[in-house]
Amino acid sequence: MTRRAGAFVLASLAGTVGFVGLIAAGWMLYLRLWGDSVPALVVIETVFGAAGIYAGWILAMLVFSAVRDAGRDVR
Q1: Is residue 54 part of a domain?
Q2: Is 51 inside any structural domain?
Q3: What confidence category does residue 34 fall into, taking pLDDT thresholds of 50, 70 and 90?
Q4: What is the pTM of this model?
Q5: Could you please report the per-residue DSSP string of 3-51?
Q6: Please, what's the b/e burial string for 3-38 (b: 16 or more CB within 10 A of its CB; e: otherwise)?
Q7: Confidence at residue 60, expressed as pLDDT on a 0 to 100 scale
Q8: Distance of alpha carbon 46 from its chain centroid, rounded?
Q9: Which pLDDT does position 3 carry in this prediction?
Q10: Domain count of the chain?
């Protein structure tokens, strides 16, 4: 496996963890505050989902850049 492929795999995992983490946080907030309201679920998961996509993308880019460039000699 090349360094770029390994970086892609790790970045995908990191982005997924970031996204799922924020979706889970939205789910817990929904259960705590509005356990039976479908419109509240839609709004909360839309907001947390959008934030999760952005956070996952940022996290994936950080991990990809760090892993891909780890073998280079910086001078």
Answers
A1: yes
A2: yes
A3: confident
A4: 0.81
A5: HHHHHHHHHHHHHHHHHHHHHHHHHHHHHHH-TT-HHHHHHHHHHHHHH
A6: eeeebbebbeebbeebbeebbeebeeebeeeeeeee
A7: 93
A8: 14
A9: 80
A10: 1
Please, are residues 55 and 22 in contact by the beta-carbon 8 Å criterion? yes
pLDDT in tens, 7-27: 899 999 999 999 999 999 999
Q: Looking at the domain assignment, is residue 21 inside a domain?
A: yes
Is 3 within a domain? Answer: no
**Distance (Å, whole) CA 51 – CA 68:** 25
Phi/psi of residue 8, each to 5°? Answer: -65, -45
Q: Which two tokens stand for residue 25?
A: 């946080």
